[in-house]
């Protein structure tokens, strides 16, 4: 045990064996596979009892008069054992001797039981408290991490994220476009975003602007691509240091639109959205939740791959940005580890339990499985390159689709 030297010489409990039909000290997991707690260990000084040829050791409990007499009477009746002058109960050589030292004080039974309950209560409380980690403690000296304000920032994001969401059935108000056309547009924009080497957050904001605009304004299908490139122009102006010029976007759209049409659409979008482009997208939550997950590069890339697959899917609009981010990380962890994995730290910082993520996660597993097939493979091709660690070729967590789990 890691803290054995600190706990007054207490040793590992290799094999716990009750010597009577009543339990003196229940195994409360404070010896095997758990941290030591000096505050609990000091409550009762532990001694060893070595059982014959057996190498196992058990912690000594205070011997009460009632317990000592019970041991003596039961041993004499069952094995014909007799007590020697040193207080040792001996009997048939086939049985291991139980050693009782004369210097062990006799205490009242009520005091002993009360003490045992106190040790268990303190120990179990400490285990629960220590189960989640403070992910910001290593960034206290880093001004860019804004440790003093980061919790307030994300609490604000959680309060306002609903305002950045759209009705999950807004396409029913469109008369000339549908969800499949939206998927084609966003899959194409993923490739445009990659070609221009734009920042990750730009793609998320672009998709958000498109959905919020289409949920409020009817658009004919021949103008849908114009909405897409203009939304990306606006997102670039908000997120990027170096913004693509309008002529670049006209060229990338195969000159289907003029410069004037792009600028006119830009005015229409910002008026419809009331110039509100400062909204929490899944990206801002993804950054924070990856830190809570103790992220490495492989997990980061796979989580990004899974959540970009979800951006293309219209049906994922029913989930809030924070839940999408948490579910993507959970799905990625399950895929990499091969089993369900969601820590108390992840649960604390995402505010989502594993059960709350399962519905979204199962849908993501389906998208992951089918990413390389079909007509819309832009995200899969992007993440199948060495630049993105070949995350697109990873094996999906298909076991999550088993309803028996």
TrEMBL record:
A Pfam family per the record: Cyclin_C
Glycosyltransferase among the record's keywords? no
Q: Which CDD domains match?
A: CYCLIN_AtCycB-like_rpt1, CYCLIN_AtCycB-like_rpt2
Question: Quick one: a GO biological-process term for this protein?
Answer: response to gamma radiation
Q: Give start and end of each Cyclin-like domain.
A: 187-271, 284-366
Give the matching InterPro entries: Cyclin (IPR039361), Cyclin-like_dom (IPR013763), Cyclin-like_sf (IPR036915), Cyclin_A/B-like (IPR046965), Cyclin_C-dom (IPR004367), Cyclin_N (IPR006671), Cyclins_cyclin-box (IPR048258)
From which domain of life does this come?
Eukaryota
Tell me which UniProt keywords the record has, alphabetically: Cell cycle, Cell division, Cyclin
Which residues lie within the region annotated Disordered?
69-93
Q: Name one GO molecular function term.
A: cyclin-dependent protein serine/threonine kinase regulator activity
According to the entry, every stretch annotated as the Cyclin C-terminal domain falls at 280-397
Mind telling me which residue stretches traverse the membrane in this protein? none
Q: Where is the composition biased (Polar residues)?
A: 69-91
Tell me the protein family, please.
Belongs to the cyclin family. Cyclin AB subfamily.
Can you name this protein? Answer: Cyclin B2
Q: Which organism is it from?
A: Allium cepa
Q: Which gene encodes it?
A: AcCycB2
């Amino acid at each position: 045990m890691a803290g054995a030297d600190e706990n007054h010489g207490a040793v590992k409990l290799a094999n716990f064996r009750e010597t009577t039909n009543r339990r003196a000290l229940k195994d409360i997991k404070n010896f095997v596979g758990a941290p030591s707690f000096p505050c609990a260990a000091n409550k009762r000084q532990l001694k060893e009892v070595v059982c014959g040829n057996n190498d196992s050791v058990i912690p000594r409990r205070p011997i009460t008069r009632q317990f000592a007499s019970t041991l003596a009477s039961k041993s004499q009746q069952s094995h014909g054992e007799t007590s020697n002058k040193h207080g040792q109960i001996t009997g048939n050589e086939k049985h291991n001797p139980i050693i009782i030292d004369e210097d062990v004080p006799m205490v009242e039974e009520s005091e002993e039981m009360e003490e045992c309950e106190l040790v268990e209560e303190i120990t179990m409380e400490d285990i629960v408290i220590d189960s989640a980690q403070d992910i910001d403690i290593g960034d206290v000296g880093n001004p860019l991490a804004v440790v003093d304000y980061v919790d307030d920032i994300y609490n604000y994001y959680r309060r306002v994220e609903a305002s950045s969401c759209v009705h999950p059935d807004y396409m029913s108000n469109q008369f000339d476009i549908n969800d499949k056309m939206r998927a084609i547009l966003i899959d194409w924009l993923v490739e445009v975003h990659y070609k221009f080497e734009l920042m990750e957050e730009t793609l998320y904001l672009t998709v958000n602007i498109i959905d919020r605009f289409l949920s409020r304004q009817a658009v004919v299908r021949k103008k849908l691509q114009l909405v897409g490139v203009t939304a990306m122009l606006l997102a670039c102006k908000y997120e990027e240091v170096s913004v693509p010029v309008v002529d670049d976007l006209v060229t990338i759209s195969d000159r289907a639109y003029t410069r004037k049409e792009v600028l006119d659409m830009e005015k229409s979008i910002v008026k419809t959205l009331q110039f509100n482009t400062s909204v929490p997208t899944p990206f801002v939550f993804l950054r924070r939740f990856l830190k809570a997950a103790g992220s490495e590069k492989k997990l980061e890339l796979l989580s990004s791959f899974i959540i970009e697959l979800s951006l293309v899917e219209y049906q994922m609009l029913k989930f809030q940005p924070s839940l999408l981010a948490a579910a993507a990380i959970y799905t990625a962890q399950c895929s990499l580890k091969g089993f369900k994995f969601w820590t108390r730290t992840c649960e604390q910082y995402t505010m989502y339990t594993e059960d709350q993520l399962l519905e979204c996660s199962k849908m993501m597993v389906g998208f992951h499985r089918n990413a390389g097939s079909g007509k819309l493979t832009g995200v899969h091709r992007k993440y199948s390159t060495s630049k993105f660690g070949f995350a697109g070729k990873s094996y999906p967590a298909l076991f999550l689709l088993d309803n028996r789990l």
